[in-house]
Design a protein that fits this description.
By secondary structure, this protein is mainly beta. 0% of the residues lie in helices and 53% in strands. The chain folds into three domains: 115 residues, Immunoglobulins (Immunoglobulin-like); 91 residues, Immunoglobulin-like; 101 residues, Immunoglobulins (Immunoglobulin-like, Sandwich), CATH 2.60.40.10.
C-alpha cells in the first residue's frame, strides 16, 4: 500500500504551523490614575480573529466592579469584570479598545490598541523524499530543519515594509539565538529534537522603527524514517501508487524494483541504500534488477537498509516467488 506523508501544518510529524501576530499598546486616561492593567491574549492575534482582554488590579475590588468595553467608540460589553473577546480586522488595522471600570463610585479608564499582523512559520525538513513527491518529508531523526518566517506586516494605511528590512529575533527552546537573529534573517537552521521529544521555535519580528511587530511559534517533533519498495515498470516508470510489501511474485523474465527512503536526514548527502538477497549483500543504490534463471518454481528473501550516518536507519523486506522452471539465480547487474 502506498503511503503519503504530509507535514506541516499543523503539528508535524510534524507538527503544525501556528500563525500568530499582534501589536498592542495601552494608554491610561482615567480619573484618579489607572490602578488596573489590561492584558491582551494571544499576544499576537491573527487577522480576522479574536483577541481576549482581561484585567488585573492590586488595589481595586474587581469582583464588585462594573466593566464597560467599547471598540471604536461603540460599546460591546457592560457587566461584571471578566475576559471579553475583541474582534480584530485585516492585517494592519487598529482596534481602539477602551476599558472603563466603575468601583466605589469612581471611574477608571484605559485604552488599548490592538493591531493584528500576518506572520507564519514554515518548517522545511532537510530530509529525503522521492523525486516529484508532492508531500513534505517528516522531520528527520539526527538531522536538521530549516524554519522560515513569512512576514507581511502593514501599518494602518496598508503600507507594508520590505521583509528584508525587518528585524527577526529567533528563540529555540526558550534560548535566544543571537547569531541567527537580526535584520533580514528570515530563516534559522535548527537541529532535530531527540526521539520522543519536541523542540519549540519562535520568532519576534519588528520594523526598524519599532512601530510594527508580530510573533509566531511552532513545535517540532522528529519521526522515525521509513523506506518503501516500488515496482519500476519499463513502460510506466516507478509505480509510486502502490508500495510493495509482504510477498511479491516475479511474473516476467526480469523485474526492477525501486527503493524510496522517506525522511532520512540529507545534511551530509543522499541516504545510502544496501540491498540483500537471502541475507547476502547484492547491490547498492535505489534500484535493483532481479532475473530468475533456471527452471521450476522458487523463492527468495529480499531486504534493504537505507541509512544516513551510523545511527539513522530504515529497513524493508519482501518475500519473492517466481517462475515455472526449476532452480533459480537472482542477480543484479
Amino acid at each position: 500500500m502506498c503511503m503519503r506523508f504530509n507535514f506541516f501544518a499543523a503539528f508535524v510529524g510534524i507538527i503544525f504551523v501556528l500563525p500568530l501576530s499582534v501589536m498592542a499598546q495601552s494608554i491610561g486616561n482615567s480619573v484618579g490614575g489607572t490602578p488596573f492593567t489590561v492584558s491582551v491574549s494571544p499576544q499576537y492575534p491573527t487577522p480576522y480573529s479574536q483577541a481576549s482582554i482581561s484585567l488585573i488590579s492590586p488595589s481595586l475590588d474587581l469582583a464588585n466592579a462594573i466593566m464597560a468595553v467599547s471598540v471604536a467608540g461603540k460599546e460591546i460589553y457592560r457587566g461584571s469584570v471578566q475576559p471579553v473577546a475583541i474582534p480584530v480586522g485585516k492585517t494592519g488595522s487598529v482596534a481602539n479598545v477602551k476599558v472603563t471600570i466603575s468601583s466605589d463610585g469612581v471611574k477608571y479608564s484605559q485604552t488599548v490598541f490592538i493591531q493584528p499582523q500576518d506572520l507564519v512559520l514554515v518548517a522545511e525538513p532537510i530530509s529525503s523524499a522521492p523525486p516529484f513527491y508532492r508531500g513534505t518529508p517528516l522531520i528527520p531523526l539526527g538531522g536538521s530543519v530549516r524554519v522560515v518566517a513569512v512576514a507581511s506586516l502593514k501599518d494602518a494605511r496598508g503600507k507594508a515594509p520590505d521583509p528584508s528590512t525587518l528585524s527577526y529575533s529567533w528563540t529555540v527552546d526558550n534560548s535566544q539565538i543571537a547569531n541567527s537573529s537580526g535584520i533580514g534573517k528570515t530563516a534559522i537552521m535548527v537541529a532535530s529534537p531527540l526521539q520522543y521529544r519536541s523542540r519549540s521555535v519562535s520568532v519576534v519580528v519588528t520594523s526598524q522603527d519599532g512601530s510594527l511587530g508580530s510573533g509566531a511559534s511552532l513545535s517540532l517533533t522528529a519521526q522515525e524514517p521509513i523506506v518503501r519498495i516500488y515496482q519500476n515498470d519499463p513502460l510506466l516508470g516507478i509505480r509510486f501508487d502502490h508500495a510493495l510489501s509482504g510477498q511479491y511474485a516475479i511474473a516476467d523474465v526480469e523485474t526492477a524494483l525501486y527503493a524510496a527512503p522517506f525522511s532520512l536526514p540529507t545534511t551530509s548527502g543522499a541516504p545510502f541504500i544496501q540491498w540483500f538477497l537471502n541475507g547476502s549483500s547484492a547491490q547498492t543504490g535505489n534500484t535493483i534488477t532481479l532475473r530468475p534463471a533456471g527452471s521450476g518454481q522458487g523463492g527468495a528473501s529480499l531486504s534493504l537498509v537505507a541509512s544516513a550516518g551510523n545511527s539513522t536507519k530504515a529497513t524493508a523486506n519482501l518475500s519473492l516467488s517466481f517462475g515455472a522452471k526449476s532452480g533459480f539465480n537472482l542477480f543484479s547487474p
